[in-house]
Amino acid sequence: MDKLGLNLRYCCRVGKVEAEHEVKQKGYAVYAAKSVMKKSTLFAPIFVLCTAFPVLADIPQPVREDAYLPVNLDEARLGQLLFWDPILSGNGNIACGSCHHPRFATSDGLALGLGEGGIGLGPERKPDPENLPEQRIPRNSPSLFNLGAREFTTLFHDGRIEVDANRASGLRTPLDDDMLVGFNSVLSAQTMFPVLSGDEMAGHYSENDVSQAVRRGIITGPGGAWDIISKRVADIELYAEEFRAVYPEIADGREIAFTDISNAIAAFVEFEWRSDDSPFDKHLRGEQALEGAALDGMELFYGAAGCSACHSGVFQTDHGFHAMGVPQIGPGKAARFETHAKDEGRMRVTGRAEDAYAFRTPSLRNVVKTAPYGHSGAYVSLGEFLAAHVDPTGAVGGFDRSQVTLVELPGVVDWKALDDPGEAAAISGAVTVPAVALSTEEQAKLLAFLESLTDPVALTGRLGIPDAVPSGLPIDR
Prior knowledge:
This protein has 477 residues and is of the alpha+beta class. The protein has helices at 73-83, 96-99, 186-191, 198-202, 209-215, 225-234, 237-246, 248-251, 258-272, 279-284, 292-301, 347-350, 382-390, 421-429, 440-451, 456-460; strands at 8-11, 22-25, 28-32, 51-53, 118-119, 126-127, 154-155, 161-163, 171-172, 321-322, 359-360. Its EC number is 1.11.1.5.
């Protein structure tokens, strides 16, 4: 019993007695079935806990403080300025917050976003007719909740950045052995790859010094893309003062390095979007129990529905990779010389055929607010995405293209992969998760539980959007 640390359903039956009571035993919430007691002078006074059996064996313990990396608040405040400052982009027009905005639960509200060449914010973002985007960003913008938790050691949809103790940098990234040493965490490293993408922040090839360096493959070292951005930041006196105040080595004369910028941004993300005060968290802490459909949904999630086979733990992710049959839309992830629109997910990182079309299990914190869903943002409705999980092998065949949230982009074909019968069959054939029989009522209960994962403080953020940034450039609000 001590080892379980979970909710147990205690069924009590004496004649036609079936009582539900919330009791506390050794710090755990213990539940019994709802009272449908038929009036009886014989049985009315009797309440017997007769049989106990765990049906929620995967339910996690409450989040502990030591689950998170420590955060230096001064570093986080510096990171706040950098996160919202377009100075990090090649053309000085896109910030991290442009595609990870609290108005859209740290995403952008689009299936596939527009980076360079876009104007506006979220679903209202439109192509700049004077500088059209070359293509959509190939994958959905992921949310940023709880990325400061120690268990997050693999990031991006395909896991191409991950902790690797065998590397000098401690990280496995697309830069391999050229990766800089000095990133404090995998999150710190992750924050600095979007600045290298022409479709995201670097800009179109030859538009600026950053995009030119990326085009030539010069990322690290003097004159590399990261060095150019670092010097831009260092040349702004307000930033120079802030860096000297936060980092003693810089105060002693060391130049601002790119890793300093990324470490500060990571500290901000870790602090700003920590999410562990939802109704579900309060339930785990024994402060306020879930009830009704949310409680039923939790029992399904951690029980018969099998959701926790992948969405395990207190943040609802096993950090693994699974092929779920999510329809592929947009440009895909092709190399420069390739003409397909496929996105084979984890396989492009590992080279293993068994990883084809597998993508990282996302955390479900605040999931009801983070639409659209899937690596390609194919589902605008969480209910539709859940329904697709019921029969993942049939998801592609039954997919409704009309509901996808895409900004019109002239000359772009978004359905190349799905229009290829062989590719559509490959996506469906790669599915590794079993179908699960869930009634409409059960799906509604699961959605009620997912609603209980919403943390209002995390959605708003703690430091918020600054009034201004040291570069003086406009902020996306």
